[in-house]
C-alpha cells in the first residue's frame, strides 16, 4: 500500500493567484507516482483515474468522522473531486467514513468509487424517492426539484442509528482544510451547525404570500432568522431524530404545495424550521455561491477572508464550465482535484 505525506492547513486569502498556486502545488506533490486509469464499467458512467492514498498524521486513533453526500450521475465528477480534496487535506484520512445516498443502487457507480478510491471507507444507501415525490413543488431551477436534493432531510432515518453525528456536504465542494476541525465543532444544545449569514436579505427567500399571512410569518417570532446554506452542515442526528425534525420540515413542504410560500427547493423549509436556532460557525467553512446565481450562473469572485471550503452552489458547475472552455477564474481552484479521465487539469499519468 503506497502512502505519502501532505501538509494539511487552511490559509488566509492572499489573492486568487496564491490560492490557485497552493491548490495546484498540494495536488501535484504526487509527481512521479503512477496513477492508473480504471476501466469504464458502463457507457453512462464516467471514467476516473485511481486516486492516490494519503496518510498525513503521525498517529491516528480509531475515532470515525462521518461524512454524507449524495450520488448522482450528473454530479459524480464533483463528488469524486470533493472526496479527493477531503482525503488530501485530512490529518487522518483513514478515519473518514463516507455515507453516500443515491436514488437507485447502481453497481457500476459503486464499482467506480471502489476503483477510484481503493482504500476508501464508504457505504451506499438507497433513498426512496417516493418519500418526497408528492411533496416537491416546482422551483426556479429544475436541478433543485430532483428528489435526491431532498435526501438530506431524511439523513437521520437512513444512516445507521449508531452514527450520532454527521457532516453533510454537497457534491460541488472542495475542502482545503482538515475536516477534523469541522467535525470537532461544539454544537452545544443545537441540532445543526453551519456558517450563518445574518446580513443577507432574508425576506427574498419567501413569497409575498408568506409574509402577508401573519399566521405563517409569525413562525420566526422570538428568533432572529439568519440565512444558512444547507450544502455544508454538521448535524447531531440523535437530536434530529429525537426532535422529529424530518416531520417538521415535511410539514412546511405541505404548506408550500398549498400556498406557494417560496421559490427555491429544499432550502426554505430548513430555514423555516431552523433559521436563528443553529450553531453559527466560521464563514471559512462555506465559501458558497461560486456557481453564480440559480438562473444564469454568472462568474463570481471569492469573498475576502480565510477559506477552508469552496462551494460552487448556484447554476454554474466548474466541470461543465471547464469542459466548455469558458471557465470562471474560481473554477481553476476546483480543477486540481478533478479525477475525470479526460481532464487535463489534474495529476499526470
Automatic annotation (TrEMBL):
Q: Known EC number(s)?
A: 2.4.1.-
Which InterPro entries would you find in this protein's record? Glyco_trans_8 (IPR002495), Glycosyltrans_8_dom-fam (IPR050748), Nucleotide-diphossugar_trans (IPR029044)
The metabolic or biological pathway listed in the UniProt record of this protein is:
Glycan metabolism; pectin biosynthesis
The protein's UniProt keywords, in alphabetical order, are:
Glycoprotein, Glycosyltransferase, Membrane, Signal, Signal-anchor, Transferase, Transmembrane, Transmembrane helix
Q: How does the protein's chain sit in the membrane according to the entry? A: Single-pass type II membrane protein
GO CC annotations, alphabetized: Golgi apparatus
Which top EC class is given? transferase
Q: Which Gene3D superfamilies does the UniProt record give?
A: Spore Coat Polysaccharide Biosynthesis Protein SpsA, Chain A (3.90.550.10)
What are the recorded GO MF terms, alphabetically? glycosyltransferase activity
Pfam families documented for this protein: Glyco_transf_8
| Annotated localization | Endomembrane system
Q: What family does this chain come from, according to its entry?
A: Belongs to the glycosyltransferase 8 family.
Protein name, UniProt field: Hexosyltransferase
